[in-house]
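User: Okay, second chain of the day. Same drill as before: sequence in, structure tokens out.
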Amino acid sequence: MTDTETGPAPMGRRERKKAATRRAIADAALRLFLERGYDDVGIREIADAADVSTTTLFKHFPVKEALVFDEDAEQEARLLAAVRERPEGRSIPAALREHALRHRMAAADSDARFTAFFDLVNSTPALRDYAQNMWLRHTAALAQVIAEESGLPAGDPACTALAHFALEAPRAARGHDDPRQAITRAFELLENGWRILAPRG
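Assistant: Same drill. Structure tokens below.
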């Protein structure tokens, strides 16, 4: 087996230390936010709880809202995988609907910490807006995968539109008596329009 076939090189000591520090800060922040509410916790308190300076905290998290969302790259990977690895016969809009329901809505049978996290975000306007903008940053990458999977040209505006509206759907469902049903209804609209434009997708 050649070096290129052995997979990525192990993380170095410095990288491991940086990752551990970032994780400690994020964990401390989330614990304090869940205990007392986002607006009632200061940056210095979080730094003290994680045993770091505020300067170190801001090196890892440039804004307070980012402390709550520490898995942006992983979120994008799961989003793209939902399209690429969807079961045979499942349409792209259906795959994105299932992703939205699974990863962007707190299910009734979720563990308590997961549900508490969603409650924190949904009850804090600054976090709701940051979360939505974070998801919308993935529009271009998602549109590219949609084009690849559907056989449409790269840059096709239909792919960008589907990506954008799929990522916006959870916000459209906010405030409804049954948000999961509202998301399902939004994706029914996307499904019907997409079927005409991209029979392969």
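The mean pLDDT is 86.

User: Thanks, on to the next one.
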